[in-house]
Amino acid sequence: MKKQLFVLTAAAIVALSACKKSNNGSNETPDDFSLPYSNLPVEEQKKGLEKSGINFIDQITELPSVEAVDVIEHLASLNSPTIGENSLTKLVSAVLAAKQKQYDKVMEETGGVPVDPAETTALSELFGVYNWNAQTADWDKVAATDRLELNFPASPNATGNNAKFVMTYKSSGIYFVDGSDKTELPSEVNGKLTVGTKELLTYKSTAAYKADATPTATSSTLTLGAYVVSVSASNNGAVAASDFSIKKNDKVLIASSSKVDGNTGSISGNESADEIVNNANTSFQVMNLKIAGKVDVKALSKVENNTQNEAAAKKYAEAVNANSALVAINTDDNTVFAKVKCYAKQGVEISYEWDGTNWYAKETKVWKPAFKLQFKDGSLMEVGTYFETGFDNFIDKVNEFVEKF
């Protein structure tokens, strides 16, 4: 069952990536789609993929053991000063999420600018030096005009305040206004954690806004020892883009990016995808495996996807191939080990109808887009079939990771 789940998940990732209108990946360029095929046989490619997957699990598993994580965890256990919700509290949440192996939350909290400015406190209003007082189990505050500084013991066994967490803040000059309340928005936030003279953590977040306080660009970088988590997003009304990555010693562990061209400025939520998006590019990378995709949404939206008609379904599959591309790349040698091709596949849809007395199942034959991997020799293989064999060690590693955490 676990192997079946792995196969279905892997197939879904590849198949869904081909159809996404707005996705994620790591700095894809048009060159991704013109790279040469790999000369390695399919089974050798699988060995390389499996090795990368196992290496990824090993590397990401080490993140919670970084020294800075333990120090921040101890800080969170203290009777924290009342400082509201701001960049500092989000940063602490990001580090604690790493401790709990909640890597999606690490990305979310590293984003920097709180989602609802009306519920946040400007960091500059909280400037001061807070010293942990072990006798009173509380914080003693000294006024400061240029920073928020926390001095505290790095661990339960520390005999004094040997850890220092400092954050500085620059105002954008723009305020979020909610009735009579005004909240100052940051253009830059910087943070640093040291224990003694050793630097364990750095953080930098920048942001730009329209006059009405709508963010147009955000960028945040959190460094924990050898690990660097980066998140950025921008939207100028014509192009929306986002990037995310976790690196260790400058080597990509996982990364994603997306770029959408179209009318991305004001969206009511009632538009169809082709009314907003003209073209979309995406890529997703784990270690040296990168999947890059692009789609001409406008062109594809003009082709009817009729699941009841074989000829129409085949025509739609041809349109998918003509107006989109999805490639799997080995970034070590910049070669393509497979391209994804769409075709029409017959299946069965089951619906339930009422005959006045009972519900009964009704089967309807339908034609839907499906996907195959195409290799250098032109041969095709179902995505699910490709992942059915050759990945036993990686599956065992994933199961071990899940059961452990």
What does this entry look like structurally?
This protein is an alpha+beta fold. 28% of the residues lie in helices and 40% in strands. It has a 16-stranded mixed β-sheet, sandwiched between helices. A hairpin with a 2-residue loop joins strand 7 (215-224) and strand 8. Helix 2 (42-61) runs parallel beside helix 10, helix 3 crosses helix 4 and helix 4 (87-99) runs antiparallel to helix 5 (103-110). The two termini are 20 Å apart. Residues 1-30 and 112-120 have low confidence and may be disordered.
Quaternary state of this entry equals single chain
User: So what's the overall shape?
Assistant: globular
Mean pLDDT: 78
Question: For the terminal residues, how far apart are their CA atoms?
Answer: 20 Å
Record field, number of beta strands: 16
Strand order, main sheet: write it out: 2-1-3-4-5-6-7-8-9-10-11-12-13-14-15-16
Major beta sheet, specifics? 16 strands, mixed
Measured by DSSP, the beta-strand proportion falls in: 35-45%
How many domains, as an integer?
A: 2
Q: How helix-rich are the residues, as a percent range?
A: 25-40%
**Class derived from helix and strand content:** alpha+beta
List the helices and strands in order.
HHHHHEEEEEEEEEEHEEHHEEEEHH
Number of contiguous helices: 10
Ranges where pLDDT stays below 50 over 5 or more residues in a row are 1-30, 112-120
Radius of gyration: 25 Å
